[in-house]
Design goal:
heterotrimer; A: alpha+beta; FAD/NAD(P)-binding domain; eight-stranded mixed beta sheet; 13 helices; C: mainly alpha; two-stranded antiparallel sheet; 2 strands; globular
Chain lengths: 592, 420, 244
C-alpha cells in the first residue's frame, strides 16, 4: 500500500550538486521544497573527520562513500549482439550516493567547456565538412551557447571558491592562464593553488616545448574563502586524500561546504534521506507529473505529490527513472528512433607513467590536492587542426597526480615482476621518483548510434525493477585521438628528464573494470529537436513540462573536460528560467 | 564647594543614565496592556535578552513557553514552569504584581519560594517596567494548557521553605543602580549583563550551595560538562586579547576571528544574543571588557616535559590540519587556540570535552556554516588526551598545569553519563 | 537547588534526524544534524586467534605472504608484516562475503571486460583454492604439502600459477593468484589498524607519511625529502607520553 504525503511545490530527486543548487534557488522563490535522497545524510565532522578519513583501504579500495551495487547496479556489454552482465563491483566509474552526491568525493576539478563544444556538430561540419565525421557518430549541438552559460559558470565558481588563473578575461588573453578558454567575465574567486615539485616540473617542460601550461582550476581552496551565501571554507592542506574521500577540513567545495548549511536553515526546505525514488508519477494525460513515489528503509512505499519535479540523480539513474516512468520515447538503436537512452558517452582517459633517477628526484607524491596540477589545453576540443589526423575531439592533459597512496600509487618500471624480492625493491626505489598522473590525458568521448542505455531484460534490483543496461565500446575515432594525445603527453615527461616513460594507451574494447572517471554522460540529452533530444535548452522535458532533468545526462556528447562545472552551470541556468519564466506561466518554455 | 558640585554633577549624570536605561514608557500607567505595541515589542526583545525560552520552551514540543523542560541542577531536576497566559496551568491568573514578585523576588503568588534555577537573583536587577513589558508580551501568546509539576527534587531539597535560608545567604534584591562615574554605554552593558542577560549564572564561580562567589564574578565556572570561560578582560584566561568588537560579533554571529560558540553558549547565541541589537551587544562588550583581570604569564612547563613532547606530536598529526601549527586556526571557521579563552581557561573541562566528544558550533544567519569538531575520544587514550591538552594549554603564550591521565579519565566518566 | 545550571540535559542535543512516526526515512531540516561522539571510526584488528583460516590454511597463507613479499634486511616480509592476519580478518568480514556487492544471479561467464562474474565469494574461493593448492602439491611434489616445500620450489610453483602453466583443480587459478597478489599488497600497504603493515613497515620502506593531513609547509619545498615519520589512524609511538 502506498501512503500519500502532503503535497509540496517542488520535489527534488537526488541531493547532489544540481539538486542542492536547484533547491537553494527555488526556496529563494518561497517555494516549499522537499529533496528525496537515496543515500544517507553526511557531513564533515560527523562522517569524514580528519582522524579516520585518510583510510585508503576503506574509502578507495572498498568504496565506502559510493553507491553499493547490492542496492543497485548496471549491466554491461560492448556490442549489441552480446549478453550484458551485471557490474558486481564498481570499476570504470563510481556512481555516487548520499547527500552531496559526487560532490563529496570528487577531486573538485572545476572546468568550463570550450565555446565550440556547445555547437559541436555545426562547428566541426563547418571546419572539416560533414564527411570528416564518422557516419555513425551522433554528435549534436546543445541548443545553448557558451556565452549564454558564462554567467552561470561564474556563479558556480564563486559558490565554490574555485582556485585558478584566468586565461581569457573578457576576450583578453591572460599570461599564466588557459589561453584556449572562452572569455570569462571576471577572474577566478581565488588564486591558483601552490604546485608541488612534479607539477611545477611538468609546467616548465611544457613551456620549453612551446605549450602554455596553466594550473588546473581547483575546488580545493588556495586560501580561506567565504562564498556569496556566507558559507566559509578553509585552506586546502594538500593531504593527498581527496578523490574517493570526503574533505575533513572544510577545504573542498561540496554541497556540504557551500550550500547545505544555508539550505537546511530554510523553513521551506526538507531532506528525506535513505529514501529511493522508484517512479515519477504522471496524470492520466501522461503530460503532467504529479509527483514521485519513493521507498524508505523499512520498505514502505510513499507518494510525494508536487507541482514541479526536478530529476537530479546520477546520469544513469535519471535515464532509468524516465524509462521506468514512461516519460519520453525509449531509444531504439536499430530503428534509430526515440531519445531516452540515446547519445550515452563516457570519457577517453589514458596515462603515462614515468620513472626518474631516484638519486636526483624526490617528488613526495603524497603532497597533493584533488585538483592539483599543471595542464595544457593545446590538444583539447578543436584547439588544433584535426585535418591531418583523421579524428575529432581531444582533451586536456597534465601532471594532475592527486596522491601517493601506496595501495594505488606504487608504480614499478616495465619488466618488474608483480611480486617477490625484485618487486619489493622496485617499489622501494620508485615510490619517490615515479610519476603517475592518474587521468593524465582527459579525452573526450563523442556519441555513437550503438552506444546507449536501455533496460536489461534479465537482471533486476531489490525492487525487481530491471537494471539499466549499458552498451558501450570505444570507436576508432576515440582510439586514434587517444594515441595521438598520449604520444604528445609522453613527450613532456621525456622533456622533464624521465629515464623511462611508459605510455598506457586507452585500448578497446571498453573495459568496465578499469577506472577512467565517473563522467558518464548523456542518455537524456538536451537539444533543439524533440526527435533527437529528451529535454530542451532549459533542461525541461519536452514531454512533461513540469519535469526538469539536471546533470550530465543532458550532455549530447562528452567534451575533454571534467563535467561538474558545466552541469552545475546548467542547473543555475535552468533555475533562472524556472524562476523568471516558468513560475509565472507554468508550461513548455519552448515549443518544438 | 567643588566637592558638592562634583556630587551634584554625578547625580545628574546618574539621572540621565537612569533615563537612558528606563524604557520611554509613555503609557506606563498600563504596562500590562495588550494594546500597547511599543511595550509588547519591548517585552518581546527583553524576553529574548533574558533568554526565557532557553528554559521555558521545551525544544521537543512545538509550543513556546509552555514549560516542562527539565533543568539540571546538582541536586536534581527542576521542570521549568508554563509561562503562557493559560489561567489554570500558566500565569494567566496572575496579577502584574504577582508576576513581578516571582521574577524579581523569587516568590510565587502562594508565598512559596522559587528555586534559583530561575535566575531571579539576576532578574531582580531589572526594572519593574521591563519585567511588566515581558508580562505584556507573554500575554499576547496563545495560552497553552500544560500542567507542570516543577519540583522533581529528592528530599530534602524538595522543601521549598528551605529556600529562605538560601535567599538570606545569596539573594540581594533590588533594581540595578547606574554608576554615575561610568558612561551610559557601560551602564547599559552592566544592566544587561547583571540583569536580564544573567551572564553570571554560568560564568561566575559558585559556592557549594550554588550561590555566586561575587568576589570572583565572571571568572568562569564549570556547568553541564562545559567550562563557561572567564569573561573579564583577563589576558590569560578571558577576553583580554579580544577587542570590544570581537565580543559583540561573537554574541551576534556565534563566531568571530578567534572563536566559535558551541554547547550552552551556542544555544544562548541562537536563542538570545544573535537577536539583540548591536548597540546592546556593544554595551555588553564595553562592560565586560572594563573588568580587569590577569595578564599573560609564561608557561612553567618545560618543552621537553614528556607530556609536552607527546602533546606536540599529537597536535602536529591530528590538530594542525584545521587549527594550524601555530594554533591560529581559520578566522570564523576554525577556532584560534592561541588566542582563545577556551584553550587557556582555568579549568580544562571544555577542552577535554570537545577533544573527547567533538562539538558543533552554532550556525546563525550571519555565520551559517556551523563547523564542527570531530570526536577523538575513540582514538586517544586518557594519557594522550592529557598530553595534547597540556600542549595546547602551554603553547602560544598560554600557561597551565600539566594535566594528568586521571583527570581525563574522570572527565570521560562524567561525560559518559551525559547525552548532550 | 542552585542556578548553577539552567539548561536542560538535552539542550545541546541538536540531533534532528528523527524517525517520523510512520516513515523510517530520516528527515533533516532546520539545522545541520550533529550529536556527541558522532562518527563511525574503524575498529582496529586485534591480534589473536585466526578468525577465518584454519591453522593449516593460515600457515599456507603466511608462507605465501613471505614468497610474494619476501623479508629483506630493511623491511619485514609479508608474514611478519601481518598480511595473513589482514587477509584473515578481511575474509571473515564484509570483503569475504561480498557485502554490498551485487550477488544476484544468473551467474554467467562473460568476457574479461565485463568484470568478475563468479558465484563464489572470496571466502569460499580462498578455502577452495588453498585446499586445491595442497592437493596439487601432495600429488605432484612427492606427498609434501605446500608449506613443506622449500622456498625456491614455492617460487617456481607460483611463477607457473601466474603464467597459467599450472592449473589448480576446480579453481580459476590465474584469477585467484591475481586476487591473492592484490590482497597481499593491500594488507602490506593499508593502515596497520587492519592487521598488516605492522609498525607501518611498508610505509617506512617507501617514505609514505600515512594518515597525515597537513602538508602546507611542504608543498612549496621542491625536491626535499619529507622528514617526519608515518602516522597510523591508531597513532605513532611518539603520541604516548614517556614515563619519567
Amino acid at each position: 500500500m502506498t501512503r500519500k504525503l502532503p503535497k509540496k511545490d517542488v520535489v527534488i530527486v537526488g541531493l547532489g550538486w544540481t539538486g542542492s543548487i536547484m533547491a537553494n534557488e527555488l526556496t529563494e522563490e518561497g517555494l516549499d521544497v522537499v529533496a528525496i535522497e537515496r543515500g544517507p545524510w553526511r557531513n564533515t565532522a560527523t562522517d569524514y573527520p580528519p582522524n579516520y578519513v585518510q583510510d585508503e583501504l576503506r574509502y578507495r579500495i572498498r568504496h565506502e562513500l559510493f553507491l553499493q551495487p547490492e542496492q543497485t547496479t548496471f549491466t554491461f556489454r560492448n556490442k549489441m549482439d552480446q549478453t550484458a552482465l551485471p557490474i558486481r563491483s564498481w570499476g570504470a566509474f563510481m556512481p555516487p550516493n548520499g547527500v552531496g552526491g559526487g560532490g563529496v568525493h570528487w577531486n573538485a576539478e572545476t572546468w568550463r567547456f570550450l565555446p565550440s563544444d556547445f555547437v559541436l556538430r555545426t562547428h566541426l561540419t563547418q571546419r572539416y565538412g560533414a564527411r570528416f565525421l564518422p557516419a555513425d557518430m551522433t554528435i549534436q549541438d546543445w541548443g545553448i551557447t557558451f556565452d549564454e552559460l558564462e554567467p552561470y559558470y561564474d556563479r558556480f565558481e564563486y559558490l565554490c571558491g574555485t582556485s585558478g588563473t584566468a586565461g581569457n578575461l573578457k576576450g583578453k588573453i591572460q599570461e599564466g592562464g588557459n589561453p584556449f578558454e572562452g572569455p570569462r567575465s571576471r577572474p577566478y574567486p581565488n588564486p591558483a593553488q601552490q604546485q608541488p615539485f612534479s607539477h611545477a616540473l611538468f609546467a616548465k617542460a611544457a613551456r620549453e616545448l612551446g605549450y602554455k601550461p596553466f594550473p588546473q582550476p581547483s575546488g580545493n581552496m588556495s586560501q580561506a574563502y567565504t562564498n556569496p551565501l556566507g558559507v566559509r571554507l578553509g585552506p586546502c592542506t594538500y593531504c593527498g586524500f581527496c578523490e574517493w574521500f570526503g574533505c575533513a577540513n572544510y577545504s573542498k567545495a561540496s554541497p556540504q561546504t557551500t550550500i547545505l548549511p544555508v539550505l537546511v536553515r530554510k523553513p521551506n526546505f526538507l531532506v528525506r534521506d535513505q529514501s529511493e525514488v522508484t517512479r515519477i508519477n504522471l496524470d492520466s494525460s501522461g503530460k503532467r507529473a504529479t509527483g514521485v513515489t519513493f521507498v524508505d528503509t523499512s520498505g514502505t512505499e510513499w507518494e510525494q505529490p508536487a507541482d514541479l519535479v526536478i530529476l537530479s540523480a546520477y546520469t544513469v539513474f535519471n535515464v532509468q527513472l524516465l524509462l521506468l516512468s514512461g516519460i519520453g520515447k525509449a531509444y531504439d538503436p536499430v530503428a534509430n528512433q526515440g531519445v531516452i537512452g540515446r547519445n550515452f558517452t563516457h570519457q577517453t582517459i589514458s596515462d603515462v607513467t614515468s620513472f626518474f633517477d631516484p638519486a636526483k628526484f624526490i617528488f613526495n607524491p603524497f603532497i597533493a590536492s584533488g585538483s592539483i596540477g599543471m595542464c595544457i589545453d593545446e590538444f583539447n576540443g578543436d584547439n588544433f587542426d584535426h585535418g591531418p589526423h583523421g579524428f575529432v575531439g581531444g582533451g586536456y592533459m597534465g601532471q594532475v597526480q592527486t596522491n601517493g597512496r601506496p595501495i594505488e600509487t606504487t608504480p614499478t618500471p616495465p619488466g618488474t615482476p608483480k611480486w617477490g624480492a625484485k618487486w619489493k625493491q622496485a617499489v622501494r626505489e620508485s615510490y619517490q621518483s615515479a610519476l603517475k598522473p592518474g587521468t593524465g590525458v582527459h579525452g573526450s568521448m563523442y556519441s555513437y548510434r550503438d552506444v546507449y542505455l536501455d533496460l536489461d531484460p534479465t537482471y533486476q534490483d531489490r525492487f525487481k525493477r530491471p537494471l539499466m543496461r549499458i552498451t558501450m565500446d570505444f570507436h576508432e575515432n576515440e582510439l586514434k585521438q587517444n594515441a595521438f594525445l598520449t604520444d604528445k603527453f609522453a613527450e613532456v615527461f621525456q622533456a622533464m628528464g624521465a629515464r623511462q616513460v611508459v605510455k598506457e594507451y586507452r585500448k578497446g574494447p571498453y573495459d568496465v573494470t578499469a577506472y577512467q572517471t565517473t563522467h558518464l554522460c548523456g542518455g537524456a540529452v538536451m537539444g533543439t529537436d524533440p526527435k533527437t533530444s529528451a529535454i530542451n535548452r532549459y533542461l525541461q522535458s519536452w514531454d512533461v513540462p513540469n519535469l526538469f532533468v539536471m546533470g550530465a545526462s543532458g550532455f549530447p556528447q562528452n567534451a575533454g573536460y571534467n563535467p561538474t562545472g558545466t552541469l552545475a552551470a546548467l542547473a543555475y541556468w535552468s533555475a533562472e528560467a524556472i524562476r523568471s519564466r516558468y513560475l509565472k506561466n507554468p508550461g513548455p518554455l519552448l515549443h518544438a | 564647594m567643588r566637592e558638592a558640585l562634583r556630587k551634584r554633577a554625578a547625580a545628574l549624570a546618574a539621572g540621565a543614565a537612569a533615563l537612558a536605561l528606563a524604557l520611554p514608557l509613555l503609557a506606563a500607567n498600563h504596562p500590562g496592556s495588550r494594546e500597547n505595541f511599543a511595550i509588547i515589542e519591548r517585552g518581546r526583545y527583553l524576553t529574548v535578552a533574558a533568554d526565557c525560552a532557553a528554559c521555558h520552551t521545551d525544544p521537543h514540543q512545538s509550543t513556546a513557553f509552555a514549560g516542562g523542560r527539565p533543568i539540571e541542577t546538582p541536586f536534581g531536576v527542576v521542570l521549568a514552569a508554563n509561562i503562557t497566559p493559560d489561567r489554570d496551568t500558566g500565569i494567566g491568573g496572575w496579577t502584574d504584581r504577582q508576576f513581578d514578585t516571582a521574577v524579581r523576588q523569587g516568590k510565587l503568588p502562594d508565598g512559596k519560594r522559587l528555586y534559583p534555577a530561575m535566575p531571579y537573583p539576576y532578574y531582580t536587577k531589572m526594572s519593574r517596567e521591563d519585567v511588566l513589558a515581558i508580562r505584556a508580551y507573554l500575554n499576547t501568546l496563545p495560552p497553552v494548557h500544560n500542567d507542570v509539576d516543577s519540583n522533581q527534587l529528592p528530599f530534602p531539597f524538595n522543601i521549598r521553605s528551605a529556600m529562605w535560608l538560601w535567599d538570606a545567604l545569596y539573594f540581594s534584591p533590588g533594581s540595578f543602580k547606574a554608576d554615575p562615574a561610568q558612561s551610559d554605554i557601560w551602564n547599559r552593558g552592566a544592566y544587561l549583563v547583571e540583569g536580564p542577560g544573567h551572564c553570571g549564572a554560568c560564568h561566575t564561580p559558585k559556592t557549594f550551595l550554588g550561590g555566586d562567589k561575587t568576589r570572583l564574578q565572571f571568572q568562569g565556572y564549570s556547568i553541564q560538562g562545559w567550562f563557561a570561560p572567564n569573561i573579564t578582560n583577563d589576558e590569560a584566561h578571558g577576553l583580554g586579547r579580544w577587542s570590544n568588537a570581537d565580543v559583540a560579533e561573537y554574541m551576534k554571529k556565534g563566531h568571530n576571528r578567534i572563536a566559535g560558540a558551541s554547547g550552552p553558549m551556542g544555544e544562548e547565541v541562537a536563542d538570545s544574543s544573535s537577536q539583540m541589537t548591536e548597540a546592546d551587544l556593544n554595551a555588553i562588550a564595553t562592560y565586560l571588557k572594563a573588568r580587569s583581570g590577569q595578564t599573560l604569564a609564561a608557561s612553567s612547563v618545560a618543552v621537553n616535559d614528556p607530556m609536552m613532547v607527546a602533546g606536540a606530536a599529537i597536535y602536529q598529526d591530528l590538530c594542525s590540519a584545521c587549527h594550524r601549527g601555530d594554533g591560529h586556526g581559520v578566522p570564523y571557521l576554525i577556532p584560534d587556540l592561541a588566542t582563545s579563552s577556551t584553550a587557556a581557561s582555568r579549568e580544562p573541562t571544555t577542552l577535554i570535552r570537545v577533544v573527547l566528544r567533538g562539538a558543533q558550533t552554532v550556525a546563525t544567519k550571519d555565520e551559517p556554516t556551523g563547523p564542527a569538531m570531530p570526536s577523538f575520544g575513540w582514538q586517544l587514550t586518557d594519557a594522550q588526551v592529557a598530553a595534547v591538552a597540556t600542549y595546547i594549554r602551554n603553547s602560544w603564550g598560554h600557561a597551565g598545569p600539566v594535566l594528568t591521565e586521571d583527570e581525563v579519565r574522570k572527565a570521560r566518566g562524567n561525560l559518559a553519563a551525559r547525552n548532550d | 537547588m542552585t542556578n548553577l545550571s539552567r539548561r536542560d540535559l538535552l539542550a545541546a542535543t541538536a540531533l534532528v534526524i528523527v524517525s517520523e512516526t510512520v516513515a523510517r526515512a530520516g528527515v533533516v531540516s532546520g539545522q545541520l544534524p550533529w550529536h556527541p561522539d558522532a562518527g563511525s571510526p574503524p575498529e582496529a584488528v586485534r591480534p589473536g586467534a585466526w578468525q577465518f583460516f584454519t591453522e593449516q590454511e593460515a600457515a599456507a597463507v603466511e608462507a605465501l605472504a613471505d614468497r610474494i613479499i619476501p623479508p629483506d634486511p630493511q623491511t619485514p616480509g609479508g608474514k611478519d608484516a601481518g598480511c595473513a592476519v589482514f587477509i584473515d580478518r578481511q575474509l571473515a568480514g564484509a570483503y569475504g562475503h561480498r557485502q554490498g556487492l551485487y550477488t544476484r544471479g544468473p551467474f554467467v561467464k562473460g568476457i574479461k571486460e565485463q568484470g568478475p562474474q563468479s558465484a563464489q565469494n572470496p571466502a569460499e574461493t580462498y578455502r577452495a583454492a588453498l585446499a586445491a593448492l595442497d592437493r596439487y602439491c601432495k600429488s605432484k611434489e612427492g606427498g609434501k604439502s605446500w608449506i613443506e616445500l622449500p622456498g625456491e620450489r614455492q617460487d617456481e610453483l607460483l611463477h607457473a600459477v601466474e603464467s597459467g602453466t599450472v592449473e589448480l583443480e576446480g579453481i580459476d587459478t590465474k584469477s585467484f593468484f591475481e586476487t591473492l597478489l592484490k590482497d597481499m599488497q593491500e594488507g602490506f600497504f593499508a593502515d596497520p589498524i587492519y592487521g598488516g603493515n605492522r609498525d607501518m613497515c611498508a610505509w617506512k620502506m617507501i617514505g609514505f607519511p600515512g594518515a597525515r593531513y597537513d602538508y602546507r609547509d611542504w608543498v612549496g619545498r621542491h625536491n626535499e625529502r619529507y622528514p617526519y615519520p608515518p602516522v597510523s589512524i591508531a597513532g605513532r609511538p611518539d603520541w604516548t607520553p614517556k614515563k619519567t
